[in-house]
Amino acid sequence: MAELVIVDRDGAEHRVEGKAGVSLMETLREMDYGVAAICGGMCSCATCHIYVDETWLSRLPAPQGDELELLQELTSRRPTSRLCCQVEFTPALDGLKVAIAPDE
Fold first, then answer.
1. Of 2, 11, 17, 65, which one's alpha carbon is 20 to 30 angstroms from that of 98?
2. Whole-angstrom Cα distance, residue 79 to residue 68?
3. What secondary structure letter does DSSP report for 73?
């Protein structure tokens, strides 16, 4: 089982099964950790904003196009910010650690 480590908005850490071939947004939305994902993964709302642990950031493809534009609009944006609808979980990401960004 590949694992995903999630830090919720209260700072609590949760270890859940990562689903290969599925976006992080789908897993986080199901877990009810505060990821609204209003647009359903269409990269048009930024309600799935997360912070990727720095040790994992280089293992992910860089954000592109619409994701970059949406991230630039967020006041809580950091260098490690991503929209989890744009990050597909793979077995190579076993142990990936992300934190849920504040709601905007």
1. 65
2. 11
3. T
SS3 state of residue 5? strand
**Residue entry with tokens 């609808």:** 85
Nearest C-alpha neighbor of 66 from the set 44, 39, 38, 88: 44
Range of the domain at 20: 3-100
For the stretch 5-23, pLDDT in tens is: 999 999 999 999 999 999 9
Q: Average of pLDDT values for 70-77?
A: 97
Which one, of 100, 43, 48, 50, lies nearest residue 69 by Cα? Answer: 43
In SS3 terms, 10-53 reads as: CCCEEEEECCCCCEHHHHHHHHCCCCCCCCCCCCCCCCCEEEEC
Number of folded domains in the chain? 1
